[in-house]
């Protein structure tokens, strides 16, 4: 798995407010970075800029490799049972081993439960299962541990380590501690406008 993510001199404006400026980041295969900072500093906005969903006020983002973003939005049909909601995407995403994510994230017992009835932590696990099924090298994770119990947190930290061992990239935006392989931490407050 080969990947590269380079952000240069990024500035972010939301509404009339400049949130941060001069932010740069370079990640190659196997690297993990945590972006920290207080509520409202702009972590989610940065993740959306890195994902290409939000235009930066200044600066550029270059990506080599497919990206998967996990944030608080659950990209699964709320009215379908979880098994069918995940299956809808498995073909589109070219998933070769759908059972793996279900096993690691312990979703097997929830396959018949409509997505809208899942608990907060179960929804998060479903979102992470879809990310794993996509087999994309660049993971953009916005508060990925929110709602997960300690066992699921450890399981997901182990998955990030495996992903990086396989040449993937993980960029994690979170104000809470997360175990990453050879971690680098960037405090977004240093770039506050
Ligand atoms: N569409 C928008 N228009 C105007 N302001 C916005 C918009 N979206 C977000 N903001 C503002 O931008 C700021 C940064 O929001 P963002 O969600 O990026 O912060 P965050 O660091 O991820 O916060 P948290 O830790 O609470 O999730 C906030 O003050 C928010 O109110």
Automatic annotation (TrEMBL):
<keyword id="KW-1278">Translocase</keyword>
<keyword id="KW-0067">ATP-binding</keyword>
<keyword id="KW-0201">Cytochrome c-type biogenesis</keyword>
<feature type="domain" description="ABC transporter">
    <location>
        <begin position="5"/>
        <end position="191"/>
    </location>
</feature>
<dbReference type="InterPro" id="IPR003439">
    <property type="entry name" value="ABC_transporter-like_ATP-bd"/>
</dbReference>
<keyword id="KW-0813">Transport</keyword>
<dbReference type="InterPro" id="IPR003593">
    <property type="entry name" value="AAA+_ATPase"/>
</dbReference>
<dbReference type="GO" id="GO:0005524">
    <property type="term" value="F:ATP binding"/>
</dbReference>
<dbReference type="InterPro" id="IPR027417">
    <property type="entry name" value="P-loop_NTPase"/>
</dbReference>
<keyword id="KW-0547">Nucleotide-binding</keyword>
<dbReference type="InterPro" id="IPR005895">
    <property type="entry name" value="ABC_transptr_haem_export_CcmA"/>
</dbReference>
<protein>
    <submittedName>
        <fullName>Heme ABC exporter ATP-binding protein CcmA</fullName>
    </submittedName>
</protein>
<keyword id="KW-0472">Membrane</keyword>
<dbReference type="Pfam" id="PF00005">
    <property type="entry name" value="ABC_tran"/>
</dbReference>
């Amino acid at each position: 798995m080969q990947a590269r993510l380079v952000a240069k001199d990024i500035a972010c404006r939301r509404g009339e407010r400049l949130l941060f400026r001069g932010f740069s980041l370079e990640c190659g295969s196997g690297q993990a970075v945590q972006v920290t900072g207080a509520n409202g500093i702009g972590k989610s906005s940065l993740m959306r800029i890195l994902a290409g969903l939000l235009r930066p006020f200044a600066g550029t983002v270059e990506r080599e490799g497919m990206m998967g973003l996990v944030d608080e939005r659950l990209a699964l049909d709320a009215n379908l049972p979880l098994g069918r909601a995940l299956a809808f995407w498995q073909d589109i995403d070219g998933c070769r081993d759908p059972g793996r994510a279900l096993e690691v994230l312990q979703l097997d017992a929830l396959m018949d439960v409509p997505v809208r009835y899942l608990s907060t932590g179960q929804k998060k696990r479903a979102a992470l299962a879809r990310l794993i099924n996509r087999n994309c090298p660049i993971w953009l994770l916005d508060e990925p541990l929110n709602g997960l119990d300690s066992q699921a947190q450890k399981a997901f930290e182990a998955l990030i380590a495996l992903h990086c061992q396989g040449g993937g990239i993980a960029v994690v935006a979170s104000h809470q501690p997360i175990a990453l392989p050879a971690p680098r931490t960037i405090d977004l407050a240093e770039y506050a406008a």
